[in-house]
Amino acid sequence: MAKTVKAIGLMSGTSLDGVDVALIETDGETVAVFGPGRTYPYDAADRALLARALEDARGLADRLARPGVLGQAEQRLTVRHEEALAAFFHAFPQHRDVSVVGFHGQTVLHRPEMRLTVQIGDGPALARGLRALTGPPGPALVHDLRAADVAAGGQGAPLVPVYHQALVRSLPQAGPVLVLNLGGVANITYLDGDADPIACDTGPANALIDDFMTARTGAPIDRDGAAAAAGRVDEAAIARLLDHPFFALRPPKSLDRNAFRDWVAARGGLDGLSTEDGAATLTALTAATVGAVLAHLPRRPALAIAAGGGAHNPTLLAMLAARTGIRVLTAEDVGWSSDALEAQAFAFLAVRALRGLPISFPTTTGIARALTGGVIALPNGAQ
Ligand SMILES: Nc1ncnc2c1ncn2[C@@H]1O[C@H](COP(=O)(O)OP(=O)(O)OP(=O)(O)O)[C@@H](O)[C@H]1O
Ligand SMILES: CC(=O)N[C@H]1[C@@H]2OC[C@@H](O2)[C@@H](O)[C@@H]1O[C@H](C)C(=O)O
């Protein structure tokens, strides 16, 4: 058996809500210990800068170019990650002996069909900052985890399925299990025994809801699904929005955070709806798009396990159960953490990358052969 090490994962997701930090002890195949997880929220200025960075990345053709505010955003994001690590080590000084850190960065553009995916975040700079926090030699830092897959013709996302597989292996559940990651964008992993995980992005999870709530109320989320629970779903709007060609595609497939924004606007948006009805309709759209993927899976899942911020939204969970007909539990119900799962996954992926183990598969990103990935910044400053 390979050596179990302490690994930290760092994730800045499509919701632009903050830096997730989580620690696990793992050999990259199984998880021995779930350590602590924390989220260090961005302030309004950080969120605004990252949102502008996504706009300025729109026409990017070169993944190394940093036009507009992208350079400034990359620097700020790297500093915020270093600050998050400093706060994490202050809270948990016993974990300064971490061996590996996986650094996702922030996706600002995702166009796998153009062999282009861009995650901002300065790996070598964060590796230096990390060494100052832990003392020498410092952990290895693994970053840019999507690039190799996209360069090889893969979707570059989702990458969490191999982690979902490791976790589901230790559950008693029989029959196919669906793990739902409900962040800004939703993705699923379908697991059935020892078969390779089948995975894809399914559509928006919270990104459209967050954007709609921000525009209507100034508050960035529909907390606990309260607005959606008070509204009425516009089924005609759902049918119009579901007509997007993405939903008819078979997995593997992946999405840019803002892929549906223009689609919604072009179909009349939700301007005529009240805040409650609009929130209800967008929440039902997320549930319906998860439902739409079921037709592409080999068997009907016996259970769905919801993670990510959307797992805190009871209205969304109820709509998922109603529209899929599948029993829906949360990550907490099975002993995992909704908020830490993605960051834990990047800790796990970093350990796999260091060991040269695959992180993406034909059934998850569509590449020809299982592939490892990540750029490794070693403690001595070498790449
Ligand atoms: N209590 C809550 N009620 C309703 N929605 C919530 C709640 N808590 C979190 N969310 C939703 O979850 C989102 C954050 O989810 P998460 O942190 O999983 O996203 P992410 O990691 O940024 O996204 P992705 O997985 O797409 O990269 C928030 O923006 C919000 O929409
Ligand atoms: C390009 C990119 O950053 N994609 C994210 C995004 O956020 C959710 C969904 O879209 C998912 O495919 C992916 O992140 C998760 C963590 C993944 O790669 O598994």
From TrEMBL:
Its EC number is 2.7.1.170. It comes from the Bacteria. ATP binds at G13, T14, S15, L16, D17, G18, V19, D20. This is Anhydro-N-acetylmuramic acid kinase. InterPro entries: Anhydro_N_Ac-Mur_kinase (IPR005338), ATPase_NBD (IPR043129). Catalyzes the specific phosphorylation of 1,6-anhydro-N-acetylmuramic acid (anhMurNAc) with the simultaneous cleavage of the 1,6-anhydro ring, generating MurNAc-6-P. Is required for the utilization of anhMurNAc either imported from the medium or derived from its own cell wall murein, and thus plays a role in cell wall recycling. It holds the Pfam family AnmK. The keyword Nuclease does not apply. Pathway: Cell wall biogenesis; peptidoglycan recycling; Amino-sugar metabolism; 1,6-anhydro-N-acetylmuramate degradation. HAMAP family: AnhMurNAc_kinase. Belongs to the anhydro-N-acetylmuramic acid kinase family. GO terms for molecular function: kinase activity. It catalyses: 1,6-anhydro-N-acetyl-beta-muramate + ATP + H2O = N-acetyl-D-muramate 6-phosphate + ADP + H(+). SUPFAM superfamilies: Actin-like ATPase domain. Keywords: ATP-binding, Carbohydrate metabolism, Kinase, Nucleotide-binding, Transferase.
